[in-house]
Design brief:
It is built from 8 helices and 20 strands. A 6-stranded antiparallel β-barrel has the order 1-2-3-6-5-4. A 6-stranded antiparallel β-barrel has the order 7-8-9-12-11-10. Strands 14, 15, 16, 17, 18 and 19 form a 6-stranded antiparallel sheet that branches. The longest helix has 14 residues.
Length: 390
Amino acid sequence: MYASFDCRRVSVKSPESFAPRHFSLATAVGLLLFSVSAFSTDTIQHPYNYQLDPPAAARPETNRDTKPESVATEDPVQQIMQAVVSVEVQVRDSARTESTFGKNRKGSGVVIDTSGLIVTAGYIVAEAEKVTVTFADGLSDDAEVVAYDDSLGVGLLRTKNFRSTHALQLGESETVEKQQKALILPASGEQGAKAVTVGKVTSFVGGWEYLLDDAIHTYPPSTEFSGAALLSDKAELLGIGSLVSIDIDIDPKVRIPGNIFIPIDALKAVMGELLTSGRSKASEKPWLGIESKDTKTGIKVGAVYADSPAANSGIKAGDKIIAVNQKQVSGLKEMYSRVWSEHEPGDKIHLLVLRDDQYANVPVETVDRQAWLKLHDQPEIPTQITQIDE
């Protein structure tokens, strides 16, 4: 439920620091003092020791019959927009995430090096069967999912035909500070661009068994946040759009809606694992299959995913989780940290739950959620078995 928050029914006061809703991208660039020197047609020098494979120079030229490829522009504003693409996805039949995110999904993606590697929000491409990337000039190409990481919440893509395009320089999200100005840039470009302010940088705890350290919270909110780029005043990529929230919790007196971005430093830290294994080691963790929230009286289960470990163990919506393996837990963050640090997928975890004023110790046999999802084609079971002579 990465984007399950609904800000349409919330009455919100607008702080004076809220930016205007409509402006030209050129004006935003001017306001943010964009530096042309931040752009280069050379491959980005990543802060990890590996070379993107295959190298850009070794990949085949794009073969499209619709219209010729656009000529690269030196206009810095156009360079920014060329690096943000549209991502459309159709998921597999009976995908487990279909009920949450739909069968057909759409969002943005960001080109992060000139070999054509694209990063987007993970839930857009989870269980994808067909992925189409559309560039700023309107040309489209099929793409493949290079990596999907449930722990961080990102996906990596590459188009099947290599295309030379501009890439955004990766910034340093650890330098992001409260009240810093930034720009949200989705695939719609100038139309959807929004100047924002960083409200805070802190951990985000999601009730769907998700924990994001150093999440960047911005306001005012953008409705085109999914996979969008968060840019610094030097046109560097600071984060990837993931969530919308009815309140980013920066003012106790008023609800301020906004967006939550995955910090780019977190992506850098696991990029090597994503490119070699298709996921990070951190994503190999036990999953219960519940959606819950912190309350004054404890952790309350709001929903249980069908055919999940929790569902198979009899956990129900409305249950309150009191303890994990006979150790009391005060909130979601503590529960996640304990389960993930002390157990592996497949381990049996005992949850002490309170239901109808009765306590019950419920054993839950966990699984690896990425193995539970239908991320790959299932092998066909042969109808006939051929005997092979030794």
